[in-house]
Write a structure and sequence with these properties.
Oligomer: single chain
Shape: globular
Radius of gyration: 21 Å
Largest sheet: 8 strands, mixed
Structural class: mainly beta
Strand content: 35-45%
Strand order of the largest sheet: 3-4-5-6-10-9-8-7
Length: 274
């Protein structure tokens, strides 16, 4: 599979860029395994697409995939390590040694050995979110967020659990939770929709629910926490102007698997589908 970068607003007009080939033929995989175990061609890359992140600036961009394999770790208490497969379009800073525009395989390690394999056992990436101008963040909606300074020559991993105690089925988590960056990528939000176990018999709609929104508060790279700042019940939502029409359907909101669940310039707006 080939990948492209499309810039809709690039001067002097839209621009479509074909990335270098990131897949290997059967012969290349066999040769890489036999001759060089460290070669990135020794396994399939950039599959599935949910593990691929894009960090874009005005001129440069970085595409990266983080391979998190907790099942293969012999010592689950060891500091977390993960393969970072990346391509940086410019010569700085990743490509300072002449690797600009080429795929590179490097090892991302736990910052200060604070994150172990057992902290993320069973990890499944649901979404990759660009955060500020330096981080790509791999999110597992049932566990937490791995922050990776993907532009750094020696990338490090930081981990923060999401403010959740339950672990619903994977398919339900995809539609009822999301992590996104707003305010031009400077603010990270976590949004959760929970179906109420008991429904008011006088309600006109079929299901009751509560929407909770958390904002990531960052003191420094090693001091981050989620702060709950908005809680909206279904009755409060349907009573708002624009929603108070009897003919409107009132199902529990969900997040689309394929669409970006936010507008980067609108930190106070959450988009969902019904």
């Amino acid at each position: 599979m080939d990948y492209f970068i499309y810039r809709a607003c690039a001067p002097p007009g839209p621009k479509l860029t074909l990335l270098p080939r990131c897949y290997s033929t059967s012969d290349e995989i066999t040769e890489a395994v036999a001759e060089d175990a460290a070669s990135w061609r020794g396994r399939r890359r950039m599959v599935p697409s949910s593990s691929i992140g894009l960090l874009a600036a005005e001129e440069d961009f970085l595409v990266a995939e983080l391979c998190i394999e907790t099942w293969s770790a012999a010592d689950k208490t060891a500091p977390l390590q993960a393969e970072l497969f990346r391509l940086h379009s410019s010569s700085s800073p990743v490509a300072a040694d002449g690797g600009g525009g080429q795929w590179e395989l490097t090892l991302a390690t736990s910052r200060g050995s604070k994150v172990s394999f057992q902290d993320v056992v069973g990890w499944r990436t649901h979404r990759v979110v660009p955060f500020t101008s330096s981080y790509l963040c791999w999110a597992d909606y049932n566990r937490g967020v791995l922050f990776c300074d993907a532009l750094h020559k020696a990338p490090e991993l930081r981990y923060l659990r999401l403010p959740v105690d339950d672990m619903p089925h994977e398919d339900f988590a995809k539609f009822s939770r999301t992590v996104c960056a707003t305010n031009n990528g400077q603010t990270m939000k976590f949004v959760k929709v929970v179906e109420n176990s008991s429904i008011c018999p006088t309600c006109k709609h079929r299901s009751g629910f509560t929407i909770s929104v958390w904002t990531l508060m960052v003191v420094n790279e090693d001091d981050m926490e989620w702060v709950e700042d908005v809680v909206i019940t279904d009755n409060e939502l349907w009573a708002m102007e624009g929603y108070d029409h009897d003919h409107l359907p009132r199902p529990m909101p969900q997040f689309s698997r394929n669409a970006t669940p936010h507008v980067r310039r609108s930190p106070g707006t959450v988009f969902a589908v019904a």
